Structures are given as C-alpha cells and as structure tokens.
Amino acid sequence: MSDVEIPDSAHEYFTQVIPAQFKETIAGHEDGPGSICFDLVGEGQWSLTVKGGEIDVTDGRHDDTIVEITFDGSNWKEAVKRMQEGGAGPMSGDGLGNMLGNPAVASTLKAAQGTLKLVTTTDSGDEWVAITFGGAEANLDQPRATLTMSREVAEKMSKGEANPQELFMSGQIQIAGDMMMLMQLAPIMQ
Question: What is Dmax (Cα atoms) for the chain?
C-alpha cells in the first residue's frame, strides 16, 4: 500500500482515495457496525462507514462512531504515509476492514471507552496520534492511556518485526494511565 499516491487535499484523500484503496478489503461486508472518524486537527473530519459492501465517506463525525482517529492536520500526509508503509494499524487493509466490517472487533472497540494516545519521539520533537474508542469524546490532554516509544520502535512494531510485550518489558515502550484499557484492546491489536 505504500505505493498509493497521497494527494495534497485531505478531503480528496478521504473521499476518493480511501474508498478505492480499500474496496477489496470491504468486499463481502454488507453494512458495518458503525463508523470510523478521522479527525485531522485544523483540516477537518471524515467518517467512513460500510454500506452495501462499499465505503461511504461523509464530512463530520457520526453518532455511531466506534473509533475516532485524531492527529495533527499539519503533518497528516506524513502520518498516513508511515501508517501505510508499516502495513499495520488503521490505514492498513486488515485494520480498516476489521474496524468497519467485523462485528466482534467493533464490540471490543465499543467496550474500550476512552482515548489511547500514541506518542512517537523523534530528534525533531514528539509526534502523536490519538485513538478514541466507544464513541467517547476525544480527550487529547488527559487520555485514558498513553504509549510512548521512539520512531524506530514504532516502525518495528508496525512492520511486525518486534513483539510489543517484549518492547514494554525491555523499557522501549512506556505506558502511562489505565493498563486495563490496553488489556481490553490486546486481542484485536495482535
């Protein structure tokens, strides 16, 4: 997926590229259990829902939001590119397909209730993405749990080259906040 051209417009990316890019992943799912909202701070919000076996994209946040993924709108293209290159997470085919079309995964996501903030440290400063579960309002200042790691560790994890539990045990991932939230999410994050 890393060869997908990312346009300059976030609106174009979410309304045109995403539906085409993930069409095959969604095939076979008639109607999804809820929406995923991408909130690019300073750029806009787009909600994705599976309807009739296709991804329907609308502006704004839906009332049936299962997961809201928030990141800084000023670097959205770089964040999306990293997620795609990693082959894991919400911008991978499996991640998006599972969240939009799998009722068991949706049930786990709804139950998690709260914001998980992922902070990646780099030489030029920290970058973050926040994932809010269960239709809760995003709380970027006081998330329910925060995971902090270096860019190198994040890349290894997203490519499946490192075990998150081993990284935590070796101190390469720091966790603050509610460990129970992470335990709730563990079955779907593997």
Answer: 46
More confident residue, 30 or 109: 109
Is 18:50 a contact under the CB 8 Å cutoff? no
140: confidence class by pLDDT, cuts 50, 70, 90: very high
Q: Could you report the per-residue pLDDT of 58-83, keeping only the tens digit for each?
A: 999 999 999 999 988 888 888 777 77
Would you say residue 3 lies in a domain?
A: no
Q: d(Cα 64, Cα 38) in Å, to the nearest integer?
A: 14
Radius of gyration of the chain (CA): 16
Q: Which helix (H) or strand (E) holds 142?
A: none
Among 19-23, 36-40, 88-92, name the one with the lowest average pLDDT. 88-92
Q: Is residue 2 part of a domain?
A: no
Give domain status of residue 145, yes or no: yes
Residue 1 forms part of a structural domain:
no
C-alpha separations of 62 from 38, 48, 79 in Å: 11, 9, 23
Domain span holding position 147 = 10-188
CATH of the domain at 175: 3.30.1050.10
